[in-house]
Specification:
heterodimer, A: Nuclear Transport Factor 2, Chain: A, 5 strands, B: two-stranded antiparallel sheet, 9 helices
Amino acid sequence: MVSIRQWWVQVSVALAASVALAASAQVAPDAQVKAVATEVTTVLKNDAGILNNQAKLRELIESKLAPNFNFARMTQLAMGRNWSKASPEQQAALSKEFKTLLVRTYSASLSNFKNNTIDYRPLRMQPSDTDVTVKTVVQQTNGQGIPIDYSMEKAADGSWKAYDVAVAGVSLVTNYREEFNNVIGNQGVDALIKQLQSKNK
Amino acid sequence: MKHLLLTAFSVVVVALSGCASFKTAAPGDPLEPINRGVFSFNNTFDHYLFKPIAKGYDAVVPTPVKTGVSNVFQNMSDAQSVVSDALQLKGSKLGDDLGRVILNSTVGLGGIFDLATPMGIERGNEDLGQTLGYWGIGAGPYLVLPFMGPSSLRDSVGRVAEGQYDPLSQVSSVPARNSLTGLRVVDARVALFPVEGLANQAALDRYTFFRSAYLQRRESLVLDGKRPKE
């Protein structure tokens, strides 16, 4: 139950944030990653039941995380040289299914991170840069930090969107490129779409 | 026996790499058909025997004991890491790992308590496979080892050499040594539970998924995380 006062505080914070965003025109990519990660981890901490509720988790990721990713670009990179072999319809289907798969994988992985803290490494970038890597380290309780790097690209409207995530040096895009390439090489693009669809069912 | 195995192993590898390339083989994985066979054997073995044991251990043993056990084995691996730090002339990692081992082995009662981590002394996490990589030796063909899983020719060589100064090999009583080795394997398997669920969710083909993840991960460790952009 959210009281009227809490609700009002939330609304004013949201308003203030959107005004601040509009005023600064663009957010630095590392600040953006931090804001999104903080928002999501706060929800995870405050809503104890959410980790057992896959539907609710996915909703959270769809609404908070997904807008910060460029899924079409991720799909294109994961397809590599096979991208041009796919028709526009196939490309659209692939992007849609790949996005669903990534959102689900992300939801499934969140429960592993609930008790960890995230360190943000200083970002070295020039104001003119349009492609940067935001480095973070998820600190586990056993002393082993897991580096998570977000490759981000600046869109035409000035917003930053991630097009690859590397967990402990393992790039998501590279991993899927091998898998996609295998399936396409042996069975073709439609087979890949089918496999993704059945995986997402 | 060990030497005999190693020789037999190298003969097989050399013989196979001499063959014309396999039809479905990916670059970097000339042994794919054999690797896939071993991978599937490992999965079956894991499913029916290994994972149930690890699950049982995880369910029955109290968390503080499990943490202590993990810490002792991590401490041993930190000690092995010291050797690789030195061989790569990485002074700062050497200091950290040495400090960890000394502190955890003494005040931490033989490594049961990890006092170094809360003090911010990070684990260097080096091994001989990485050391060979650091000095310019490539990963070589990807290998799936029976029972042990993903590896490469270079990393397998590193593992065998590391076995020569494994603290557990100093335990003179054979039953004790075998039990401790078993415990170490179970401890490592329990640590994989979270990753495994993730891989099952993410992968279209588990074999390719693990191969790509393993090779990328090792490359990243060799370069200490300074992965060049594509």
